[in-house]
Amino acid sequence: MVLYALQRLAVLAATLVAASLIVFAVMSILPGNAAQTMLGSTATPEAVAALAHKLGLDQPAPVRYAHWIGGALRGDFGLSYAYGSPIGPLIASSLAVSAPLAIMAMALAAGIALAAGVYAADRRGRTGDAIVMGASQIGLAVPNFWLAILLVIVFAVSLRLAPAGGFPGWGEPMRALGALILPAVALGVVQAAVLTRVTRSAVLEALNEDFMRTARAKGVSRRSALWRHALPNALVPILTIMGLQFANLIAGAIVVENVFVLPGLGRLMLQSISNRDTLVVENGVMLTAIIVIALNFVVDLACAAIDPRLRGLAA
Amino acid sequence: MLLEVSNLAVDLMGTAGAQRIVSGGTFALDEGESLGVVGESGSGKTMTALALMGLTPENARVSGSIRFEGRELTGLREEAMLALRGDRIAMIFQEPMTALNPLHRVGAQVAEPLVLHRGMTREAAFDRAVQLLDHVRLADPERAARAYPFALSGGERQRAMIAMAIGCSPRLVIADEPTTALDVTVQARILALIDGLRAESGMALMLVSHDLAVVAGHCDRVIVMYAGLIMESGPVEVVLREPKNPYTRALLEARPQPGASRGRRLRTIPGSPPIHHEIGAGCPFAGRCDLTIDICRTTPPPEVRFSADRLSRCHRAREMGSLNMRTGA
Q: Can you tell me the ipTM of this complex?
């Protein structure tokens, strides 16, 4: 297991370097000059060139890359062209919204999906299965922004149980949490629909394995065979999908963040792109890449902890 | 009698209605006895075994009577059945590759029945599992107990399966093709191990196999199944020497014979077993049998009893001694 973890860690480091190069390359060839954007279309070429020089934009690419990575490693991500403030705190404050939101949505999705998926698999072909599958079909078909608006109308406008939008900051933890509940539901329900289907089919597959019959022949009850023998065997595909979903939730919540006016990572990226605030975009994209890669690493380790055959491959 | 089965029938409920895949199964098994169940794939032998365990698929309906240690098992409550399974009746499955849970240590899997039926702690049961693995002569049982199934060979896994089955000293072990997936040399060792365990514990064995040679060498009595029916039953050496059913005889003739002249083709049974809905009014073997007469196609074959434990289901069973099938037999 330790060997396997080290191996995955090496892959993780290599992937990070590759990701940073790609992010840097894409941002470098992107049309639009940050200096030009900052100064506006009326600026003289001399002024633009001077600002570009001041920002280091006229230096060769390897130097700029080294400067970027070197700064990032020291925690210095540079200044936002648009806001003129340090990028580190800017991204950190957006992540302080996006990460808890993603965690809440994922927890909700996983809770619903595991219960409903195992239930449906256990009652394959019967009414309960049909109801779960029908509900998940609806969940798949509903766009999350539509669900978000519906939630606002019902719970914020009519019932006044939750705020319709905005984020008070973590200075008031309970209100902050409350502001994230409706967005988390809007995001989580759709993910739960996908994950329920994955869970159901993975559990069904495990239920049909020969070892399930062996377990029953030993005198293991149906229920216990389901939870102790079938579910662990179904977890690897479930965790893999959850990893992908979580990454998606962190960076891909733009639409729902907009509906609820949440200052999350998605919104920050959207604004920075329209402002040509390339440094913010560069670091934001890199952060997203780091989160995805780190999640994959965690999922790999979790899967290996569950399935000894996966660890065996590394030895 | 340890086990008395009478008129056992299994019906599979499908969209096209019920299909009878085992019918009229009547047989008995004494303490310490070994019974071979022989037949082609789809003959109902595995379904018969699963019916005894109460583990038939959800869409199956079991009828008839299964008396085990004097107790009726059909219609028994699931909790009572749970207490029997793995304790009084144990089962060994065909594929040691897939019949063990890939995520649990071998020792924990062998220990599981002890935890369930003997109330042992996991630790104590694991220690006992190591002893059991040693008892089935697995080399280095400590290592095998801590290993995961993928790290063991097919033969080692099947030994672990056997250790799992005998842990609670069952009175009846049902082995469903226990050696089919193994190399021939490993097969012989596994069968010898089962024989040895049976001799020392006095457990009864029901050995399900498509291999007549395996049954001949390791069973006292045999039942031959075809299309869900018991075609013939009796003491194994009598049935194999003097079959009273054309199907049994056809199976025997399809075997390679030691010492037979080289280049001689093995006899085959023409056609394939009927699919269940194809079985008409008559004998299910009628279409493939070369002793078929008119009545075979119209009337189900009767059970012809030759002695207390010798039975053949055939219209021409009494003529069998004098009839030769095809030439050269």
A: 0.87
